Amino acid sequence: MTEAILLVGGKGTRLRPLTVHTPKPMVPAAGVPFLSHQLARARAAGVEHIVLATSYLAEVFEPYFGDGSDLGLHLEYVTEQEPLGTGGAIRNVASRLRSGPDEPVLIFNGDILTGLDIRALVDTHTGSGADVSLHLTRVDDPRAYGLVPTDADGRVTAFLEKPQTPEEIVTDQINAGAYVFNRSVIDSIPAGRPVSVERETFPGLLAAGAHLQGMVDSTYWLDLGTPQAFVRGSADLVLGRAPSPAVPGRCGDRLVLPGADVAADAKLTGGTVVGAGATVGAGARVDGSTVLDGAVVEPGARVHDSLIGAGARVGARTVLEGAVVGDGAEVGADNELRDGVRVWCAARIPAGAVRFSSDQ
Ligand code: GDD
Ligand code: MG
Fold first, then answer.
1. In the chain, where are the structural domains located?
2. 253-349: CATH homologous superfamily?
3. Residue closest by Cα to atom 25 of ligand 1
4. Both ends of the chain: CA-CA distance in Å?
5. Which of 84, 265, 313, 341 could pair with 330 as two cysteines, CB 3.0-4.6 Å apart?
6. Active site residue 162
7. Burial level of 192, CB count in 10 A (0-12/13-18/19+)?
8. Can you name the residues that pair with 329 across neighbouring β-strands?
9. pTM more than 0.90
10. Closest C-alpha to 315, from 284, 346, 275
11. In this model, does residue 59 exceed pLDDT 90?
12. Which ranges carry the Mannose-1-phosphate guanyltransferase C-terminal domain (predicted)?
């Protein structure tokens, strides 16, 4: 087993509204583009050849990762003219694979942060003789995911993408977005048209009697589909809860990148990352948050579980709680922003303009 496909295209690739020009895989998590963590974890599991299947903004990946040799990888890039869906994207890169028909190929959704034991998934695959094996995890609310019930031997009995009705919610096991496919299964996906692996390929394989094997692994797992999840994931990387060889420096309560300027009495906790050229002023408290490059957190601000975009400014004594401040936005002093509020890139909020608490 030496190769993998990484899916980094489709509609959900941009972290909206924060980074208008940056595709999500390139938004920094724990100081490096998120994709670095997936690449490094795959490499650590023995993967040597990775094909990046993307559908737009491909031009940002190659200048950064090049041929992958810095990571000990051989990286290739394939760009779809129009998004081909997950299955279409996999089929579209088949000609780049080197594996023989019976050899296993790893496939990863590009927006997942996980501690999955990749070798164990491959071993499960080879050991069970399956056509496809899937990493499964358990979640409280499975509606946003693909539901994957299995029998007593772990064999997949159905695949229900984004179940709509209560009757469809037959299990809390979901598709965690990492698969092993036999090469011949990839070649059997129709070419040249959009295909959803979740809605077409998996149900079709099951109907045809193919062997799909599930491996439930309840290690760290997070879909980084929202900015809030992104902040959580970045903090968990810094804290060491989400394992990645690509975290720069040692894991701990905070990660302050070179060139950041943090006041001596500022308090950074909970896996907070402060990017290059960012400033955190006197007495500020930043917990479980990401402060991207060049952002400014003024004295006395209190920031919790929030994302502050590149070059954005958060005024003195302002409180951010579960907030997203877009790149280049300015939140004036003495504001209070809470509960999933998103400040658009380059927007301006005057001092003392937004408060949640009573007027005292
Ligand atoms: N190249 C390419 N082309 N990649 C695509 C395309 C496409 O047209 N469409 C989606 N992708 C990539 C996305 O970039 C992402 O990395 C992955 O495929 C999954 O797509 P999402 O759009 O993020 O799907 P989702 O999160 O709603 O659901 C998927 O992930 C869940 C786990 O997080 C499904 O696989 C679910 O079954 C699964 O539970
Ligand atoms: Mg997703």
1. 3-223, 253-349
2. Hexapeptide repeat proteins (2.160.10.10)
3. 145
4. 64
5. 313
6. yes
7. exposed
8. none
9. yes
10. 284
11. no
12. 252-333
